[in-house]
Amino acid sequence: MNTMPLPPASSRPVLEVRDLVTHFPTRAGVVKAVDGVSFTVHAGKTLCIVGESGSGKSVTARSILQIVDEPGHIVSGAMILHWPDGRSTDIAQLRNRSRAIRDIRGRDIAMIFQEPMSSLSPVHTVGDQITEVLRLHLKLSKAAARARCIELLGQVEIPNPDKAIDRYTFEFSGGMRQRVMIAMSLACNPMLLIADEPTTALDVTTQAEILALIRKLQDQHGMAVMFITHDMGVVAEIADEVVVMYHGRVVETGSVDTIFHNATHDYTRRLIGSVLKLEQKAEIRLARAPLDDAAPPVLEVHNLTMQFGAGKNPFKALDNVSLIVKPGETLGIVGESGSGKTTLGRCLMGVYRPSGGQILYRRADGTTMDVLQADKPSLKAYQRDIRMVFQDPVGSLNPRMTVAQIIGEPLYVNNIAKGRALDDRVAELLERVGLNPDWRERYPHAFSGGQRQRIGIARAVALSPRVIVADEATSALDVSLRAQMLDLMMELQDRLGLSYVFISHDIGVIRYMCDRVAVMYRGRIVETGAAGQVCDAPTHAYTQALLSAIPRPDPRARRMHERFRYVA
Amino acid sequence: MSEAALGVIDAKRTAVASQWQLVWWAFRRHRLAMIGLVMTVAFYIVAIIPGFFAINDPSQQNPRAAYQPPAALHLIDTSGDGWSIDPYIHASVLKRDPETLEMIYTTDPKRKVELHFLGQGYEYSVLGLFRSRLHLLSSSNPREPVFLLGADRLGRCVFSRIMQGAQISLSVGLVGVFLSLTIGLLLGGISGYYGGCTDFAIQRVIEFVLALPSIPIWLALSAALPQNWPAALNYFMITVILSLTGWAQLARVVRGRFLSLRTEEFVMAARLDGASESRIIFRHMLPSFASHIIASITLAIPAMILAETSLSFLGLGLQPPTISWGVLLREAQNIRSIATAPWLFAPGIAVVLAVIGLNFLGDGLRDAADPYNR
Fold it and tell me: Which among B15, B265, B269 has CB closest to A443?
């Protein structure tokens, strides 16, 4: 039962899905999550299913294993699984608790999920969880299962597999956990691996490693991979075939090259277009007159240090960070999770009290204040001038207040407008961010993610601030909405003379919008420079590694194999 | 899944629906909770105007009716020509066994005692506001009392006493929970909002209170109440004693809500908007957990009702002549009453129904409390 390297039989279909329909009956009516989807997965090939949120791509994957959440169920269609020996089964005909479908799950078709944190059990060792699969499906003895498990962990490049097998999952990082998930899914040499957004929760450098690993294992085992993602860069990097889904239907199927360079359907072209748009600088930024370099900065940050926790080894979230923000410019702050960029944003807002350093703010009248030494009234005045746009369009708006109340709150509590005047101001602000002013009596639940983020922006500009800190303001949005949101922010910037501190992990967004970029790594700023220079010709080794790990949305320019690794 | 939670209501109405409308729509679909709501409302209507539902004066003793069994209520009268809906009972006749002197009640099928809807009966006061003689059911013949659920040792009408007892028993729950809520909201809110040392101190106090064995404490405290206090003061002290331990649970709930809300982005947004502390608490945070608090309260009332019942049953709560369900159950404390007058347990059934109704209601409220289901 050791590795059986199959020659990749290029044309042999592993799974044929025909006219799959999955419905979710709700009280409001039937939601057609999957509405007549057909595609074929071939051995040794990677099929990517792409689509924006709510397009039905995950439900399609779950339908194949018949693990759709209640009350969803497969209404019709066929899903024919072909074994190498010529037998075939229609999975759609199997009852979802039958022995047959349980044998297929895990043995013939394996699945890995988005959340490596919650899809592994925290109370069992890694070895327990993998050997269980082996003993269940392959009836291996304890010793044999353990040996095979160590071999699998080695295959997914986990260091010291003979020690790692006895460790618990909380001792591993997100990327390592995803490797464990992959090892588990490979345990029985499945014919088909379904990966549902397996890298979405990971940093780009970790994502690059996981993608490379899946590719390598696919080559070794000759399995088919069905990869579900919303990230067109990942698609371009790994796909052979692409299925584009929209509102539960397949709008286009084709080879990866056709989809990216010769798409026929409007939706596909728009999707690719909005991705490519973020590959260059925004048009309204290219057309803008250069900023006045001599103007004194609005914000000056000197040697900012922020420690969490006391004792011998406090965690340094910010380590000697210095930067400036000039009037009218956008400073991008880019970094991976845990790099301290959110902490920096909150220190700038005066939410956290840094352990050391200086934040100097130059008021409109030219006087400066030290934010960290400020008394309460001047800190309040400072917080009227520097405002925040949050990442989560759901959590940052109080669901129990109407939009008018949410946007009007800063005006009301600062005694700027009341009653009738407040109402007029709110209507004007809504109009300015491109929302219908008649909607102001609605509650946030009546708005989509993009609209909610516009409400957040309206709230931020309500007090006519001079600086806005935007913390991952577009990362919760679908790609087609991202460019729109950034365009709106830039238009407001030009109209109101705003400076932005734009915190993001997404280089595309940074390149599109920012004038200057600071790259953060483990609480330090490793590189600062003009956006074009940092994005295209980085000088620091970490920036180079980060940029080389970002998949480019062009299948003709795959480069994952030539990426740099940064070892600090 | 917000679409599923919002359900049948069309998008236009949901768009401008406030939290309470969404909670109500979600609640209305919960069948068991609706049953609980109807039961609870019915019980509290009885508690407000018990005299209207009672048939006989609950304190009226009747030596000729001691342990009289429940009378069978006939709804349809077929004695005349054809039939008519006209409730009546057969009058009962008391005899004594010549040897054992036991009282034996038999019914006289020839004598009917008719019952009138909305007829006149004994005079009672409605919440001390005004007096009335109107009753839902009343006997047509004042000399023939109607005992729907029998009579007790002193010949008092059990049914009427259950109706009257609802007032005290159900209001003890409300008042007790109100007191607990005031303490719990205050301490839990301070604890959760400020955190740190304050939180630590308050949490230790809560743990101490929760560690107290409640029944012995209640017994000790209520035994310490002077016997000669007026009934109203006694009643108030009992509710204070009950809420002394009840507030700790509520304080925990409130603190938990505050802790989780404190980190919500919309609370930080309010702070950055320049809102004052009190505005953040009352305008932004309180509405977010008001529905949860109401659900917890609804689930706390039955515990209070049961506590009052147990205390009074043990003879340490309310004292006769005050009428509460616990006081009534004291009549059923001995084996003799089980043997000869099982209807004396009827107040127990009232307790069970009230508690079940409130629990159904509270469960439904808890499920509907967060209509945004994030």
Answer: B15
